[in-house]
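Handout, section 4.2: multi-component inputs.
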Amino acid sequence: MSLGEAGLVNQKYALLPAFLQAKGLIRQHVSSFNHFIGSDLLKIIRAKGNERVTCDADPNFYLKYTNIYVGRPSLEEDYIQTELTPNQCRLRDQTYSAPITVDVEYTRGKEVVIRKGKNNSGAILIGRMPIMLRSDRCVLTGKSEEELARVGECPLDPGGYFVVKGTEKVILIQEQLSKNRIIIDTDSHGGIVASVTSSTHERKSKTNIVTKHGRLLLKHNAFTEDVNIVAVMRAMGVESDEEVLQLVGTEGPFATLLTPTLQHCREEGVFTRQQALDYLASKVKGGSRPPGAGPAGGGFQRRTRSRVDEAREILANVVLCHVPVVAFDYQQKVTYIAVMVRRMLYAMLDPSFIDDRDYYGNKRLELAGGLLALLFEDLFKRQGRRPGRFECDASHEQSYPIAQNGKLKRHIATTLELHIAFPIRSSNLHSRSSALPALPAPQFDIAKCIRTDTITFGLEHAISSGNWTIKRFRMERKGVTQVLSRLSFISAVGMMTRITSQFEKTRKVSGPRALQPSQWGMLCPADTPEGESCGLVKNLALMTHVTTDEEEAPIARLAHILGVEPATLVNQGELRERGSALVFLNGNILGVHRRPKAFVRAFREMRRRGKVGEFVSVYMQHDTVQIASDGGRVCRPLIICDKGVPRVKDEHLRLLKEGKWTFNSFLTAGLLEYLDVNEENNSLVALYESNCGPRTTHLEIEPFTILGVVAGLIPYPHHNQSPRNTYQRPLLTTKTIELVGFDRLGAGQNATVAVMSYSGYDIEDAIVMNRASLDRGFGRCIVLRKYGTSLKKYANRTQDRIVLPAAATAAAASAARPGKFRILDRDGIAAAGEVLTQGEVLVNKQMPTNTRDPVTAPNALPDSFYRNAPITWKGYSGGEKCVVDKVLLTSNDDCSCVVKVLVRHTRRPELGDKFSSRHGQKGVVGSIWSQSDMPFTERGLVPDLIMNPHGFPSRMTVGKMIELLGSKAAVCTGKFHYGTAFGEPAGLADTVDHISQELVEAGFSYSGKDFLHSGITGEALEAYIFMGPVYYQKLKHMVGYGASMLLLERLMISSDAFEVQVCMQCGLMGYRRHDGTTLCSTCKSGANMAGLRLPYAMKLLTQELQSMNIVPRLILDSQ
Amino acid sequence: MARTKKGARKEDPGAAAAAAAAAADDGPSTSYDATLPASLEEQRTRIVCKPDRNLHTTSTIAATQWASLGVDAAFDLARFKRGFDINITRYEGDDMEFEMKGVSCAVANSLRRIMISETPTMAIEHVFIVNNTSVIQDEVLSHRLGLIPLKVDPRLFQYKAKEDTPSEQNTIVLKLKVECRRLPSGALENDKVYSSALQWLPEGSEMPDETSCRFASSQAALVPEGVRPVHDDILIAKLRPGQAIELECQCIKGVGDEHAKWSPVATTWYRLMPEVVLLQQPRGKVAEELAEQLPGLLHLSGSGDKATVVVGDVRKHDKLLEKVRRLSGEERYAPYIQLRKIKHHFIFTIESTGAWRPHELFNYAVQMMVSKCDKVLEGLQVFPNRSF
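Output:
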């Protein structure tokens, strides 16, 4: 196979399926979870504050976590470990989770005990971790389609969600402003503000430098008022003004701009370091302990410190806490502040240096892994102990603030005290233990002290409720998780790529909602909901990858090797030398490089050769070089070009085609690389090969990858008016559909559509349907609903039961069970296959009337002891019948019996059902006509549905017309046609010219129009009718009220309902007297009064008519 | 059937058979003797297919339509008899195509409508499911069963009203009992259930208590050739080892109006006889281009400036007709070529599902129409003859 010069255009598409094969559709979720399990967990337990637990009671005691493991999802029931499958969890309302185990080291008396587990699992169980489906730990990973089917799993299901208490939960991707980065902004007065949100494992804090009267001031929570920034620098050891200027930069008008600040500093009398500290100390928030003064702080070690010490501490650990200060060496932090100031000064001179908050390079996406890591660390610190002999008093427990491994630590203290106390029976015995019998204390076992439910329930509860409460950071977020939508396959996949942001939905700001140019290729430009969350909820594009944290140390080492001089080693003047640039790694200053461009080039070359992680980005920003390896950046793969010549050549694509290469081979060979939003700014990306010029650095893989999964389903979206694309195996497919697998799990049908006005039943987007098509099965769907209950056990050993009703048992011998118990089986549960009618009992559950007082024989209680608590079916009457599909009897985590009944409803389309094509052209069924009344073509074709042409002009859905043409050609030629977005140049979408050609060859009009006869008169129609197949989907049926209910609701309940007394004899309104009796003032009798609710407007009308000598009489009819 | 260029109508009452055939295309017989002007005559008998719309699609309705021209448009039986013709052009299995000339589209359409929705067949209506462990839900399975066409003459049976009890006169009982097993060889038995698995029970239901269907006598004599699906290879369900379907179906007589499963035709329709007309003889380059664009339909004769074209057999080049229509919209060819449809010349297609032979269906539809007309006449006679 030879590929011409233009051949690449058609071939490079092959990279996309390779990419998705390697990564999967919801790779972001899975890879972040894997990263969390694989490396974050270990980092958390090895973190400074978490690793060791000490004890106040026994100074020699310590407990050290040495390793942590997450096993395979399993379940222990009756002391038997069995493998857990996700479907089992869904059915049994369980959580799909795996045990978390740790290796520990601790002291017992004088000896050090080391406990290690075997076979990749730890010695001690500390809790259970909900497992993301299709992650490394999931049982489904690596299974073939057949094996998946055996465990009851759909092979096409993408995974990426959790099963918690039987429900499928997705942790939505959260968007937030990036941490540890300087952002220059303006405040409400137009002053320049530099703000940094510092975030470390221990602390989060926000530092601002603001301008006030030309002075630069530091604004921070720890200070009562804004403090002079030069004073802060003085306090950090930069005493002379010259040094300050050298740090910030001496060039241009910087000195002039800084003068007011220096002047102010002088006015405040701050010249020396000591003066500066005194100045700051006077501004420290009074009385309050600096938050978390020491990493292992807590309320225990409250020392009385001077305010100066406090100020020093705040500068070291609170202000800009992400910049390390080791042994009060402020060198790095001062440089950092100087950089902030410098950027502010730049922005004052040139407003184009002000950052855009909505710029996507300033955003980070938080995924399941990161959110779980936050939560886990919090829970790990809180983790307590197993309830045992030495139970703590609950109230006592709460009186302590939460500290590291809080509960565990306290428990060890109590336990150890006992151990010490018992042998000698000393008088200072723990107060409550004196009540205990003097048993010899069992040997201290750490396993007994560790309580597993804190972590287990904490994680489970957070995921199932969506409330993310991190006590350390006082973070409380709601709605982090959502129930996975299973309306259709695509709605489930679409949910996994959804991004929510923390912005308030009610705020009427357009900035965050607007489509940012920097989102190109990263986020889908079309897929966002309408209404209040428009633009705030976004979706990832097809090839977007979200990075995970990468180790900084090797990157820093490499940077130094490539010539970055550590900032501490160079003279302050040299920092600002012309041509050199400061190098930042994840927002921290790494050093200075004298030839930054060469450095960036070299660094990129190292990445392309695989010496640095593929997701590490390096880019020039103003006069700095930024290296980023932090998690949550969005990036996407692009083809590298050398002077405009793409590196990917025909032979590479051939290797891919032959299966010798995978997507990763392209990465390792340095032909492709991932660029994040910031690095894209340093690149010139060509859309097509023909656009490549000498300065082009990268080439797009395929234009349609700027769209997301859901938007990619729409054929020819670039021919539609854009709002029409914002909606939720057709004949005409797109490449996205094939990649996603939608062609294997279709959710609609190819309907033959005639675009015409035929009768008046198709006005206002209504559609007329062919009854014969419905008879033959068009548009049918099966709605399944679950009804479930569990049998609870109560404290007095009574429990719920399911029985046949007494009346039914007696009658059982003679005839069928009566009334609402008709469908019950002998076990009191509805039989599978039974047709339901309204009000029938599905499960005849009974509850004990008394669940508190002890009863003598809990198993042999009389029937009168129970009251009925049945599950009844409340389906609406009319329409088709519902059927009991399946009945499941199982037990849940609490070992109580669970009964689930699945009710099935096969719906045939009826008047008012909603259908939609893939172009947002939804319509309700306006009328259903028999086949003989429908028009027919010269080839005998009768449309399945008729759509009004007035739907087109205002909607401008040209894409739908092309879909119709393409589908028609597909039927004629027997080949699927394509309508991929922007796909025409690459041959991924059929052009209208090409389609028309095929239609003409098949004997159809080039325009897709047909000669039709009316089915009613038999005469030919004057107009040619645009007709052909269009893929139609049935939309979720909203069970609405009937018209009468609607009127009642609108005109009465939510309007002006009013109660009047009407005389049934004369039909006029009377009144209610103060004693409650009613009276008709016309008949002078209260005998025939009736209460009536009507709109107040109605009552007013009748009375006004009366005033005009017209007597309206309300004639009532008793029901 | 080669068409000659249409000119003004020539009236020749004593014409030969060939002339009669030609006359038949001139519309339903009317008794007028005077001639219509050529343009009106064209409107009366032809639909002109312009590139963006059809002209003159309506038919003559009133007998007095051209009274002012001295032309009586009333129906004339003698002329109808002379002009009417049916000619079967294709008869393959259950499909039949024939040409029908000299009737109005109202008649043709009525026949079409009767065939689709008023001609009875037998179809499965009630399904009594004893066991169904397949993945197909009961309703869906029943729906699929209902759509299977059955080879049985519906005229042998009576309609069953809802309150009637099933009997040998109004109900056919079918049984389906299959179970999938893995054979010792490893192959699967009955993994696909085809319509051939449906068994006819001429003696009636095997579980009369549940189905309340009791036959007084066997249907074996009534339907000597037996009852079976038209096609034996309709896939009903797929099974896996251990799954089974056991059910009994009751078939009753019904019409397509009620449910499409009773419709005896997959579809039936007609189209009008197309006609390619040379409005004026193209010559030279235009003629050559046209002949090239419409190969086979237009034959070139002569060459160079003297080139002319002759219209060939339109029926054999159906796929070029839309092209003719498009060309007739192009400025260059518009003066020369036009596509028309002959209003009263129907090419009728009947695609039977197999319960009826297509020609029987047509006969039935005609009889049905006759009886409907009788009913109307009967009704008219009840009223006194009065003018409004």
